Amino acid sequence: MAAAATFLGIVMLSACSVSASANLTVSPGKVATEAEDALEKVVGSRPEVDCGDEQVDLLDGTVVACELTDPTTGSRYDTAVTLSEVDGTSFHIDVDVAEEPKA
C-alpha cells in the first residue's frame, strides 16, 4: 500500500512538471524563413538566415539569436529576431541585424 501511495505521488509530481512547461513552440527554420521574408521586403534581395537547431518558445519577447549571410558578399552578421503579438502559433517578428559583419 505504501508503494502504491509513493508511486501515485511521483506520477502527480510528474504531471505537474509536464503541464508547467507546455509552451507552444516553433521550429528555428520557421523563424529564419519569417526573418528572410521580412528582410527581403525591406532590402530587395533575400538573405540567408540561420537560427540554429533548437525549438523556439512562442512567448512574447522571446529573442532568437540568428546569423544572417549576405548573398552578395558572403559576409555574416549577428541577427536578433524578437517575437511579439504571439497568438497561438501566429506571431510577429522584429529583426535586428548588426551593423558590422562578424570578424
UniProtKB/TrEMBL annotation:
It comes from the Bacteria. The keyword Signal applies. Residues 1-20 form the signal peptide. Keywords: Signal. This is DUF4333 domain-containing protein. The lineage of its organism: Bacteria, Bacillati, Actinomycetota, Actinomycetes, Micrococcales.
